[in-house]
Amino acid sequence: MGDRAGLAALTEEIVACRRCQRLVEWRERVAREKVARFRDETYWGRPVPGFGDPDARILLVGLAPAAHGGNRTGRVFTGDASGDFLFRALHAEGLADRPVSRSVDDGLTLVDTYIAAAVRCAPPANKPTIDERDTCAPFLVREIALLTEIRVIVALGAFGWDAALRALASLGHVVRPRPVFGHGGEVVIGPYTLLGTYHPSQQNTFTGKLTAPMLADVLLRACQLVTEESGSWTP
Questions:
Q1: Residue 231 has what pLDDT?
Q2: Which CATH superfamily is domain 4-230 in?
Q3: 130 Cβ partners below 8 Å, 6+ apart?
């Protein structure tokens, strides 16, 4: 069973974090200035914690909240085009109870799945610095340790792949040579299997670099892996 109390405490710590001055200034400025289509909404404007099933066997790791997505709604991949693409795919595989998530209180429930970001604040140009990446890294390490049932980690993009490898290394699970990211990549690291997929960003989905069937294949593989280990799958 996942450590619910530990996850709740970690969530509070993440939300209160102000360690990276550049990210604090950016996320709060975006929340003040907004964009025209969301001008009447109150932005979250803080770090965005992970969310999902505390007993999940599948963990998805993305890059960071979108400026007008997670930074607005308070939940990663919620309220932006990347999330629309991702949640449709999760729903199709039985990993989410609905295909669309627009707000943090829309009732979305993830099934056997937890979603986190490598960096918890929206970064300018969607590009965290190395120092910001490293400052945020311990949150993912602790998250994985608290999600005791996790067996498969799906890295959404190269940044998520790198973050997952670093987090697992911090937990004592190192693989050599270091696996190179690629869509459909798969590597066993200690008790975990790491899978790679291109990030569901508009840059990838609009150009066809990542298609719905491609993402479905990776998520299906994640489901197969947890089924092989437990002998059951009940999405």
A1: 58
A2: Uracil-DNA glycosylase-like domain (3.40.470.10)
A3: none
